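Take a record.
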Amino acid sequence: MGKPEGIIENYLTKTAKEHGFLSMKFTSPNLNGVPDRIIIGNGYAVFVEVKKPDGKLDRLQVEVIKKLKNHGAYVTVVYTKEDVDKLLQTLSSVTNLRPDQLD
């Protein structure tokens, strides 16, 4: 059936599209530890790291996420399909998104 993270990432992409959002794979050739996806919709771009339900962020991922947030970026981590649903529901309904609404 595939890796657990892949299942969640595929669900994120599929469900984001159903909501009318863009889901773009994010890679940075000169920087490891960047989040997996950027979800764009309702006037916001959100960096999303996808983990399996019992997954952990590694040290580099924690550092990159902190750096992104310190520069004002919206960043979240999803572990389950329910996390994806919550993220997309929040993104669909907000007019003034605060970074803490994604934690």
Summary: The beta strands are 22-25, 37-41, 44-50, 74-78. The two ends are 29 Å apart (CA to CA). Residues 4-18 form the longest helix (15 residues). The first strand starts at residue 22 and ends at 25.
